[in-house]
Amino acid sequence: MSAVAGGAPPAIRDGRTALGRAVRRCGLDRPVVPVLVTVGLLCAPPDSAGPGGHSGVTPADLSSGVLVVWCALGLLRDRARQRAGGRLPRRALTPRAALVLGAPTAAFAVTTVASADPAASLPGFVRYLQLFVLVPGAVLLALRDARDARLLCGAVVLLALVEGGIGVVQAATGTGASYQGEEVRAVGTFGALDVMGMATAVAYGLVIALACGLVPPAGAPRWLRPCALGSAAALVLPLALSYSRGAWLATVPACLLLLALRGIRTTVCALAAVTAAGVVLVGGFGVATHELGQRVGSITEVSASPDRSVTDRYTLWSAATDIWQQAPATGVGPKGFPEHRDTHAALELSSGSDAAGAGVPFQREPLLSPHNMYLLVLSEQGLVGTVALLGAWGALLVCALRRLADARSRGAACGVRDCGAAATALLVWQAVDFLYGDIGGPSTVLTALVLGLGTWWALSPAAEEHAEGRQAGGDLAA
Asked: DSSP letters along 88-117, please?
């Protein structure tokens, strides 16, 4: 009777208390947990039964939706607590952040309504909203401090190591995606229908690991720097075996930015080490010598190229420009490029790209985008969408660089400067990669998460509140 009057029995209350302590000790009560779960679900092989090579919704997409709902409920809970007079953490969704995220939202809505078929453009509007507004905004809210940011960085590095290891095995055993008639292209668990997936994940992990090795957190254990630098060096091989020219070109300026933060001496030594390693691996052991040499040489070749994809890419770029001239202000609407492609493309454009290997039978994949994010937005959303989206990305990059420069001027080599270096380098990587690629495939959710990390560093007050190095010591190691 007393147990009923006093609520749950003492044993149950003690169990709940112990469970709550264990959950808090493990950090499972933190909003960053859905972010980490989303990163982990990217390892799940995609379903290749749907149109376009995979089903429309992947486990990572579902998890990103849960993340958005989780953060929205958190905002409502904080608002209710504010009405009750409770104490709130400092708001991450500042007016500046609301403007950066809100401008693309308004532009996406305008271009969708202005398209010739708004109903057909609606799925594209939802996809753009998910990748460039909702998920980055949710990550901005979920990362409460530097520890959360380091957990996300660690999860991305772990994903890169797993996918890179699988990719190396695929290249060594001939079980990867098809490349010039041989199944030697490393694609990880993303499969032959998303050949950019593993390359993107590995490049992200390489940049983060290099940032952690060059600018380690204050008080970090001694083994952290060699492990981080060793991870970055290990990820070079799967990145090379991915044969992704866009990922290669984007990784160079991102790594140069990180090396520049350490000074000219470190930059020269690092470049010498990379060159020596390349000579040993390619020249000494002959690791994919012919394929890599031909792939590098095809970057600048347009006519009489042994790589047909280069000619197709330039042809698609020209078609995207012509499509934009058809509707300069608002474009032809999201998802409208494939419908207008054949009308504006030259005759030499291929009917599709070959996809095979890594468990996928041979098939022809249609060319649904110009393989240039800027031209894709320009053709589908005109000047309205392009100015809004590029303005938001430019604001993120400028704010990130300014905050990183402020941290250096204060001598804050501790604190969140390691997170800031990684986030800024990732924004640079993405800005360059979008010159040679665009959104598409299951791995695109990872791009949204990385943009969220950059948004947190550029716009969140927490990135400045945690600039003291005492906290940073064992976060990543833990």
From this structure: -PPPSS-HHHHHHHHHHHHHHHHHHHHSS-
* Least confident interval from 33-47, 179-193, 447-461: 179-193
**Half-sphere exposure at residue 386, Cβ-oriented, CA atoms within 13 angstroms:** 20
- Phi and psi at 458, nearest 5°, equal -80, -30
223-269 pLDDT, tens per residue?
Answer: 888 899 899 989 999 998 988 888 999 999 999 888 888 766 666 66
With a CB cutoff of 8 Å and minimum separation 6, the contacts of 368 are: 52, 337, 338, 440
* C-alpha triplet 108, 109, 114: angle, nearest 5°: 100
For 371, residues 6+ apart whose C-beta sits below 8 A from its C-beta are: 313, 316, 317, 436, 437, 438
Starting at the edge strand found earlier in the chain, the sheet holding 177-179 runs 182-185, 177-179, 353-357, 360-365
Q: How many CB atoms lie within 10 A of CB 183?
A: 18
Of 175, 357, 167, give the one whose Cα is nearest residue 244.
Answer: 167
CB atoms within 10 A of CB 266: 14
Express each pLDDT in 153-182 by its tens digit: 999 999 999 999 999 999 889 888 887 778
Give the number of C-alpha atoms closer than 13 A to the C-alpha of residue 387, restricted to the C-beta side.
Answer: 11
Sign (positive or negative) of CA dihedral 168, 172, 173, 178: positive
SS3 (DSSP) at 415: coil
pLDDT band at 145 (very low <50, low <70, confident <90, very high): confident
Beta strands in 205-327, from DSSP E residues, in sequence order: none
